[in-house]
TrEMBL record, chains A, B:
<dbReference type="InterPro" id="IPR012340">
    <property type="entry name" value="NA-bd_OB-fold"/>
</dbReference>
<dbReference type="GO" id="GO:0003723">
    <property type="term" value="F:RNA binding"/>
</dbReference>
<feature type="binding site">
    <location>
        <begin position="394"/>
        <end position="397"/>
    </location>
    <ligand>
        <name>ATP</name>
    </ligand>
</feature>
<feature type="binding site">
    <location>
        <position position="202"/>
    </location>
    <ligand>
        <name>L-aspartate</name>
    </ligand>
</feature>
<dbReference type="InterPro" id="IPR004365">
    <property type="entry name" value="NA-bd_OB_tRNA"/>
</dbReference>
<dbReference type="GO" id="GO:0005829">
    <property type="term" value="C:cytosol"/>
</dbReference>
<dbReference type="InterPro" id="IPR004364">
    <property type="entry name" value="Aa-tRNA-synt_II"/>
</dbReference>
<comment type="subunit">
    <text>Homodimer.</text>
</comment>
<feature type="binding site">
    <location>
        <position position="349"/>
    </location>
    <ligand>
        <name>L-aspartate</name>
    </ligand>
</feature>
<dbReference type="GO" id="GO:0005524">
    <property type="term" value="F:ATP binding"/>
</dbReference>
<dbReference type="GO" id="GO:0004815">
    <property type="term" value="F:aspartate-tRNA ligase activity"/>
</dbReference>
<keyword id="KW-0547">Nucleotide-binding</keyword>
<comment type="similarity">
    <text>Belongs to the class-II aminoacyl-tRNA synthetase family. Type 2 subfamily.</text>
</comment>
<feature type="binding site">
    <location>
        <begin position="210"/>
        <end position="212"/>
    </location>
    <ligand>
        <name>ATP</name>
    </ligand>
</feature>
<feature type="binding site">
    <location>
        <position position="158"/>
    </location>
    <ligand>
        <name>L-aspartate</name>
    </ligand>
</feature>
<keyword id="KW-0436">Ligase</keyword>
<keyword id="KW-0648">Protein biosynthesis</keyword>
Length: 423, 423
């Protein structure tokens, strides 16, 4: 019966079986120490002489657990037998058991199937798995229903630019940039509160540390709201839950990365400022006139929020109409829309949507789009749709910012950018 | 403060506000009854005279809750004021408040954004949302990590047939048929146990009640197994959990569809028969020689399982090598592979995978594929991979069979088939 590395202490003095990967070999002549790695952690194996095994080989080992204060975690296994289940070639393309910070991002991604064996690199995705769970858990507790919408769409919701084209039998379709129209359909169908976890695609050519061409979008849509304030309230609730859970359960991952999450108290004080206020704050702090929020401005606003409000997040709302998509609910020359900035990066965009048929048709035209091409979408609003709105959190951006990763690509298992489509 | 329809009884005698859709209007002259629908259910509104409102309009209503034994659920609201939040056009393309069984599948799908307002149709997707939660919940409890892999791949894992082509900047990539190679990578990375919930694509031209060109795949992969028996054990555990939860929490949805789920006891007796045994059983029962499992055979085997073992499921394993993909672990001329049939339909395919580099290269060649094209994949196995295997459950097929839907397309919010790419 296999015992996991993390549970070795509980088997002190007993014969156990462990299975895993050969993480490190230290041959001292009369004795050989091997670190065995499994999904739960590591344990030190003690051999009288170096066994015939290579780094990263997968083995099954039997032996006796012994306390040893010098061993990592205080216990080790005196090995009686070892069986090699899968022998690794000796020419590892990158070092698995070293410090990943010494590997460049290109080396990490070029050798993705090997670099993911590094425990620190892999921990990014254990955290990401938990973020997925925490996100869904909170929304389910608030009576949200999870949906799965199609990623193949007949035309773009925002006019057809930035879309990847798919050969679909004898016609062309596109990869969806967002499930937003589907989320809205489901709110209007009577589900009222929906969320979706799914892939989103942007055929944008920029190659930066903050962009991916394929990413996981954590999408939320809610009916019977008054304004974007309700959405910011909801997102604050989601963040308090996710950060609270991370603090409670994922401390060891944060520690590996020297990271921390905002406290519950800090999250009660996320400032909400208008786009105009944001520009004024930036103009003053940067000593120049600022006309829009660029990456420099996003970083500076988060600095401001930390200084003035003690939290590394800031909501910016009331964007001008021309800066937001056609479906955004207007409020004079502004809109009921917002972004959330976290540690210098926009991780969310959201808004109340137009739910009135005539206003929507008018706005579609105002944006130079053709209402006929959006007839299926318009039908939702023709037959009664409650006031509603929503937002999306980019999973990889969020993960990047929680752990302080230098590139978003580190937070995607198999990232896709302009040049990279493998592995 | 809004009260949901399901909570009306608790507000007897009080002034409440309710919000929702006008589901049904019954004007009796001196009094008008309106059924209001929200995400939680319905409530009867009582007006002295018919208000100016159309079916499916969204309203906000204030009034007093009164007990009335004749009202559905025993309570109704005497309305004092009603505000129309969004007025529905009078020409509803299909009837929302009728029996969906009277609508054909084409009418339901052609008018998807309206047909989803029917509570019985929408209940399919409330159940599906819960199935997603139950699936993930069980796997997390068994120490599985959730992954999100790319759906854009450089080449097909199974030779390039049946793939949708995507224009990706200046090159062509394909929509993934399965995350299997990525699941395997993650097992070999040391995660050992992973699952993924994601879209899968099949560019197959058949248009049947059991096929979709885009579906949600519930994927599982586990390391350190001995054979496919371990995988069937795991899948049985998953099914016991999902069916147990459905029985506990989703009884009202089952009731609407006249459906039931297998009992926990029945699930302990799912037979496991070889492909050869399956053919022998079918030959005897159908009175003709049977060479492969076709839809007729799948239905008949489930009949057999119900008669002989009291359960509507059957595992078929030990498929011949030529019937399974190149990565399937051989066992003489057979393979360590299986299908799970449920109520006449294959809902799962799984196998132990080849984890030995040389055996994998040999098998790739045996299948007429080029190892060079799979170099990135092969690297996983060159550097130590534990014995492992996995399987996938099709979410829509599973939902279809739980509720007894006549077509799989009813179990997809926005289904994609050869002809349908909208809404």
């Amino acid at each position: 019966m296999r015992v996991l590395c993390k549970d070795i202490a509980g088997s002190n003095g007993q014969e156990v079986e462990v299975k895993g990967w050969i993480h490190r070999i230290r041959d001292l002549g009369g004795v050989c120490f091997i670190m065995l790695r499994d999904r739960s952690g590591m344990v030190q194996l003690v051999f009288e002489s170096a066994p015939d095994v290579t780094l990263e080989s997968v083995v099954s080992v039997e032996g006796t657990v012994q306390e040893n204060k010098k061993a990592p975690d205080g216990y080790e296994i005196q090995v009686s037998t070892m069986k090699v289940l899968s022998r690794a070639a000796a020419d590892l393309p990158i070092q698995v058991n070293g410090d990943p910070d010494k590997l460049g991002i290109e080396a990490i991604l070029d050798n993705r199937v090997i670099s993911l064996r590094n425990p620190k690199i892999r921990s990014i995705f254990h955290l990401q798995s938990n973020i997925l769970a925490y996100f869904a858990e909170y929304l389910r507790s608030q009576d949200f229903t999870e949906i799965k919408s199609s990623k193949l769409i007949g035309s773009g919701s925002e006019g057809g630019t930035g879309l990847f084209e798919v050969e679909y039998f004898d016609r062309k379709v596109y990869l969806a940039q967002s499930p937003q129209l589907y989320k809205q359909t489901m709110v209007a169908s009577g589900m009222e509160r929906v969320f979706e976890i799914g892939a989103a695609y942007r055929a944008e050519k920029h190659d930066t540390p903050r962009h991916l061409n394929e990413y996981v979008s954590l999408d939320v849509e809610m009916g019977f709201i008054e304004s974007d304030q309700d959405l910011m309230d909801l997102e604050t609730g989601i963040l308090k839950h996710i950060f609270g859970r991370i603090a409670e359960y994922d401390g060891s991952i944060l520690e590996q990365w020297g990271a921390s999450v905002p406290s519950q108290e800090a999250l009660d004080h996320i400032p909400r400022i208008s786009h105009d206020e944001a520009k004024a704050i930036l103009s003053e702090r940067l000593g120049k006139r600022v006309f829009e929020l660029n990456p420099e401005g996003e970083r500076e606003l988060c600095e401001w929020a930390l200084e003035k409000h003690g939290v590394e997040l800031v909501f910016v709302n009331a964007f001008p109409r021309k800066k937001r998509p056609f479906y955004t609910y207007p409020d004079g020359m502004k809109t009921m829309s917002f972004d959330l900035l976290f540690r210098g990066l926009e991780i969310t965009s959201g808004s109340r949507r137009i739910n009135e048929y005539d206003m929507l048709v008018e706005n579609i035209k105002r944006f130079g789009l053709d209402p006929a091409g959006l007839a299926g979408y318009l039908e939702v609003f023709k037959y009664g749709a409650p006031p509603h709105g929503g937002f999306a959190i980019g999973l990889e951006r969020f993960t990047q910012k929680v752990l302080g990763l230098s590139s978003i690509k580190e937070a995607s298992l198999f990232p896709r950018d302009r040049k990279r489509v493998a592995p």
